[in-house]
Amino acid sequence: MKKKTRGQLIVLSGPSGVGKSTVISELLSERTDIYFSVSFTTRQPRVGEADGVNYHFVTREEFEQMIANEELLEYAEYVHNYYGTSLKVIREKLDAGIDVLLDIEVQGAAKVRAKCPDAVLIFIVPPSFEELSRRLHRRATDQEEVIQGRLRKAREEYQQICNYDYLVVNDKVSAAAEEIIAILTAEGCRTKNRMNFVEGV
Amino acid sequence: MKKKTRGQLIVLSGPSGVGKSTVISELLSERTDIYFSVSFTTRQPRVGEADGVNYHFVTREEFEQMIANEELLEYAEYVHNYYGTSLKVIREKLDAGIDVLLDIEVQGAAKVRAKCPDAVLIFIVPPSFEELSRRLHRRATDQEEVIQGRLRKAREEYQQICNYDYLVVNDKVSAAAEEIIAILTAEGCRTKNRMNFVEGV
Q1: A43 membership: H or E segment, kind and range
Q2: Would the CB atoms of B189 and A166 count as touching at under 8 Å?
Q3: Which of A118, A191, B70, B92 is the least buried, fewest Cβ under 10 Å from its Cβ?
Q4: What is the largest CA-CA distance in chain B?
């Protein structure tokens, strides 16, 4: 068989309430070869969160050292806490031919695109914006004010959709995961990723 | 549900002996919604060939009238016979939201790309060039001289592979067809083809 090419860097974004975590779980259960990148953060773990699973929890000093060492692919600060993606781990996986999945928001995705033009950017949308509103209300965990804030944020995020290569519609979770799997298969078939099959002819 | 977008124009090319017809049959049996475009030709039907199935058989005068009327998306002349693709039929299908598949060689594909930048160009390759040679010899229908001619032609075609979006490896027919289906699914998910999901937000 031909030599293994480099792994694919995959960025998934989507508005709050679209069901992104569920789609990612489904995707990772189907494509167990994908490495899901766990972000670093300086915020405190919430109940039920485990270090190395939900996040790598580090101190502010440790995080700032990573920034100084240029160890981060992208990072951002929200409500006095840092969130970021380690470049080192991702590079190792990609070099080993392993596909890497990042779950990051639109600003982070734009930074990844700038640094890694070959990254595949996928934005998950609901079947309609009205449906997103219904889903956020159905969760019934947030106050109306919070929900309206999330919808405003979603509208802002939608303005950045043109930066994404693909839109996956989360109507049914399994169908959305299947679409992402098809996208990854197709990206693997891109001529530039398969030149090893035609070299030396 | 959201309004149907335009159909996708798909171009399949590949060297003689790669097994393209078999892959296409498999693909069309899985994706019965795809319209397979039948070419027009001025050559005589061979035994077993039916008008409208293998080709639309027309006279030289009829073909030249189609050229004059600019009814062809692409055409070429081989060994004193014309071969071409009708623009009219394809346009009707695409406008109706139907995906259209063309089986054409590299020069024709380049013409389609020039006229339809959104067309998806897929080149089918064997697992290796040695395997292509083995397959051509295994058919045992051609003389060595003819086989060497086909291999020379294949090498020329390989020089045009950079014009193709995707390379599909025909190691196993079903896997090759599955890859093409994944490519078509992914192309349908392209942001530009799904803007109807985010309009008016």
Answers
A1: none
A2: yes
A3: B70
A4: 64
